[in-house]
Amino acid sequence: MPTAVAGPEIERLIQLLARLPGLGPRSARRAALFLIKKREQIMAPLAAAVQTALEKIEICNACGNVDTQNPCTVCRDHNRDPGILVVVADVADLWALERAHAVNARYHVLGGVLSALDGVGPEQLSIAPLLRRVETGELKEVILALGATVDGQTTAHYLADRLHDFDVAISRLAHGVPVGGELDYLDEGTLSAAMKSRRPF
Ligand SMILES: [Zn+2]
Fold first, then answer.
1. Burial (CB count <10 Å: 0-12, 13-18, 19+), residue 11
2. Do 143 and 168 contact (CB within 8 A), yes or no?
């Protein structure tokens, strides 16, 4: 056990910061010190924002998105094509597609991907609610926007199989070359998937 350099309140702050994604113990210590130095400008408003978000956060019953209202802002938006549903693994993917203005549709968050290694089966994911949404018959296309990882693709194949009997078009992302990406910076997997899904010019 390393010796504590500060009181338990500060040590607790560092320990909690160290649990954030991307922050290890060293960066958590730096972040804690930064907050302490900037306690009026950053720490107080951050604490208030965390408290407010904690009180207001809701998980959308329809799609699984995180928002402060339920149904969420995306589900309430009547300007979206009601016939297209984009299936994503995580809320982060939904937000990334929204930031990219990739599609004007609604979403369905699975809450992960199938993984034999991590013991994630279909019943651990929001698949039954997805099938219920497709069963309504209001959709004309389901886009499987899942990652180009082995688990992501396994999940896409599983879902394509389950959706096969419904009268709905199923599509998936092309694993293309990233916009602005030099070919020699790409990993081989991306490059070979890009080559396999090539289209006439
Ligand atoms: Zn929603």
1. middle
2. no
Q: Ligand 1 center to residue 105 CA distance, Å?
A: 11
- Within a 10 A sphere around the Cβ of 90, how many other Cβ atoms? 16
The span from the CA of 142 to the CA of 87, in Å, is 7
Token digits of residue 122: 């279909």
State residue 43's pLDDT score: 97
Q: Identify the CA nearest to 28 among candidates 6, 50, 49.
A: 6
Interstrand relation of 66-67 and 58-59 (parallel, antiparallel or unpaired): antiparallel
10-residue averages of pLDDT along the chain (201 residues) = 77 95 93 96 97 96 96 96 94 89 92 94 96 94 88 93 93 75 77 76 74
Q: Could you tell me the pTM of the whole model?
A: 0.79
Distance 73 CA to ligand 1 centre (A): 7
For 105, the token pair is: 């549709």
Helical ranges in 40-114 per DSSP H: 44-56, 73-76, 91-99
From the DSSP assignment, how many helices (H) and strands (E) are in the chain?
A: 8, 6
Distance 37 CA to ligand 1 centre (A): 39
Of 62, 70, 69, 11, nearest to 36 by C-alpha is 11
Rounded to the nearest whole angstrom, what is the distance from the C-alpha of residue 11 to the centroid of ligand 1? Answer: 38
